Amino acid sequence: MAGAPPPLLLALLGLAVLAAAGGANAAGRKTVGVYELRKGDFSVRVTNWGATLTSVVLPDSKGNLADVVLGYDTIAEYVNGSAYFGALVGRVANRVADARFVLDGKVYHLYRNDGKNALHGGRRGFSKVIWTVKEYVGGGDSPYITLYYHSFDGEEGFPGDLDVYVTYRLSGPYELSLRMNATALSKATPVNLASHAYWNLGGHGSGDVLGHTVQLLASRYTPVDGSLIPTGAVAPVAGTPYDLRAPTRLGARLREVYGGRAGVYGFDTNFAVDGEARALRKVAVVRGGGGAPGAGRAMELWADQPGVQFYTGNFLAGVEGKGGAVYGPHAALCLETQGFPDAVNHPNFPSVIVRPGQVYRHLMVFKFSF
């Protein structure tokens, strides 16, 4: 999704970066590190800086391995980067209009980091903090890591204390699950977490995703204004460029869609996922396409949220990433399951309010094949 806070000028020289693998329990560890989960030739790396997914390595049909998520080589680059590569964003993902909302009669003002709006939790959202490693098992039948963050009352303007957990798990053969829980402790508060991974099934440095095909199981979407703020409507996709219900080659569709800025094209759009709300259901299917590397790879996304933000990397431009790769526009795509953007200001949207003692729950499952 587009938008970027000003860089945080933090020095990480005193923080150890761990190339962690194996079966050690790391309960309570506050060191910033990189932790690997591995099952055979399928591996995932996560850092507790921003609960960020830094790599997903898997084979193609010929056994060639590739890392299929965009990212950086060092933690320092994640600290100062502006693209939210792989980050866990919150307390409220996506945009909040005018960086304000009213809850139980009280007006709350948030940090403006996207013009006059708030984006992805503000200047110091969940993607720009150190999470605590609660549990870590790097190998075995079901490798996983659980991370924890306590968000304090008033952080970035949001009300109430919030305990947040996310677990990354290799939950099956070539299957990655993300389970997010957040408990409101003291006040009612909006909660809308999202994983902001950038996917390119040909490999993170293989060029653009215009040859990928995408299918979204969504019959409706939320139109936006020129600032990418929802108008409040939930409109049918039928007869519009947003109709991706059948597998659609991205290169044939992107130029039909306004990308959020003059001269910019591509998707940055919330879709209302078909099916029962809060039930785990198929959201999207993505396939590598053409003669590109990794063309045989495919990814299914299952989730239990009412919406999914589909973003096609419209604002990437000359970003230097892992291994010296340079990411340009449409170098990847994002599928961020979520509550609807700006739901706090649209009573007709599914509520994102969590009251004291209630638990926010969000499950995503990525199923890869080749």
UniProtKB/TrEMBL annotation:
Pathway: Carbohydrate metabolism; hexose metabolism. Beta-D-galactose binds at N94, R95, H196, A197, Y198, D268. GO terms for molecular function: aldose 1-epimerase activity; carbohydrate binding. SUPFAM superfamilies: Galactose mutarotase-like. The keyword Thylakoid does not apply. Keywords: Carbohydrate metabolism, Isomerase, Signal. The keyword Isomerase applies. InterPro entries: Aldose_1-epimerase (IPR015443), Aldose_1/G6P_1-epimerase (IPR008183), Gal_mutarotase_sf_dom (IPR011013), Galactose_mutarotase-like (IPR047215), GH-type_carb-bd (IPR014718). It comes from the Eukaryota. The active site is at H196, E336. Its EC number is 5.1.3.3. Residues 1-26 form the signal peptide. It catalyses: alpha-D-glucose = beta-D-glucose. GO terms for biological process: galactose catabolic process via UDP-galactose, Leloir pathway; glucose metabolic process. Belongs to the aldose epimerase family. This is Aldose 1-epimerase. The lineage of its organism: Eukaryota, Viridiplantae, Streptophyta, Embryophyta, Tracheophyta.
